[in-house]
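Dear colleague,

Thank you for sharing your sequence with our group. We've completed the structure prediction you requested, and as agreed, I am returning the results in plain text so they can be pasted directly into your records. Please verify that the sequence below matches your submission; if there's any discrepancy, let me know and we will rerun it promptly.
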Amino acid sequence: MRRFAHFLLIGLLTAGVASPQKRPARSDTPPPREAPPPPEPYNQLDSNETLFYVLAAINAAGYDEQADSPTNSPLRARVREFLAKQKLESLAPLRRYVRDHKPRNGGELGQYISFALVNKGKPDFTPANPDLPQPLDADTLYDFPPVLAAFYREAKLGVLWQQAQPDYERALAHLHDPVVLAVQQVNAYLRNVDSGVRRGRFQILVDLMGAPNQVQFRNYIDDYFVVVTPAVEQPIFDIRHAYLRYQVDPLGYRFAEDLQKKARLGEHAYDSPLLGEQFRIDFVRLATECFIKAVESRLDRRSALAEEAAREGFVLAPIFAELLQQYERQEVAMRLYFPDMVNQIDVKKAQQQIAQIDFLKERPVRTYRVTSEVKAPELTGAAKTLDDAEQLFLDREKSAGNAAKAKELFLKALQETDQLPMHAKAYYGLARIALLDRDLETADRFFRKILELEPDPATKAWALVYIGRLADSQGDKDPAQDSYKAALAIQGISDLARQEAQRGLTGAFARNPKSKEQE
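Please find the predicted structure tokens below.
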């Protein structure tokens, strides 16, 4: 591949598998023919170029889910900021498309992930297999390719992709070792041996442009994909679950007839309000999911996991978990042992066991534990001066001299750098200090000065809000309304600034011109 690919070799670890000892070849035995080279590894931990282009585009066009979350990759903010500064003719139709195709019940990110995974990619972004039915959520975006292609060309997303490589390399390296261990753990438990026969792909894709703490699973025919976004905790459990499904689904299909003999047990699962429709209509799918959850409980040595799964409707999980103890005491691989284990299920006994399950009414809420504190990079130069000035300004009520000290530092920052975005931040601080001093003319001049520089979206939005409020204070309603509308049109406006701009549009800050002399 173009850079280091994180290969997870299926069948890499078969520790604990008993196999016959090979006898040494006799001296008169002809040497064996040279074995063919091993197949190229195909199940990878990697990034995806097309996925990057798709999500970079929707980020520029109004996809703002958790855009302010500290868990985001810094890359997302950099790409959003860069694209926001460009004057692109293709952006307006892209924004309309993203707006008009926003799902009513959520899942905005999911449909674009599906679109990217079944796409041929640049430059036309047409389906990779146009003769096959497309996933339902991706099919709703059937007319997206020309809109995306136009934006890809004009925004030069290919250059951004190259610049993003170091961020992806770090993210991949961070996940590589724990993911390899999870895959090895599954292979060892199921006693997989790589026969060299391919059956689709299992691919883990890291996405740095979507909302954080997302794990999206896709299964297209024989191909299995897991897409993960930046997270507070590494989603190793979810990745392992997906890999188990990749390994176990063929067992369910292969031995579906054996499983169907136990289908009466699925009737008890229908009483669970949490059980998904896909498991209600397909007992084989329900049974294999129960088996997966049972394996997870054995891998983690937590019998409670199987019990919890049963309370969510996966009623066979504890039964499989019990039978797996017998599997662990023998030497046959799971691909051969599975039908025997299914046949060991006593339907009458299992019915009595399942009847005792107290189904949950609400799905347990997943909590995240921060395992280590991520320290922000140490600021230097003008950036540190601005940060110190901002802190003094915010703490102005603690000391009468803090506002004056903040003003000195904002002025100092103007001398320390020629970067226009930093100048914008300095003038933003000076403008607010002018407001404190009731010097409305200077404040208005400084807020307008910000718009001439290269302010970040948040600073620009607040400057426009303040300009609107100053206009309202003078009874200039129309210019005030124009400023509020301009602020609301900025992609990246903070929630608080948006609220203030919306209040301004309602006339909350408007003042009658005749009352100005009464102040």
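Summary note from our side: The beta strands are 6-7, 44-46, 202-206, 215-220, 223-228.

Kind regards,
the structure core
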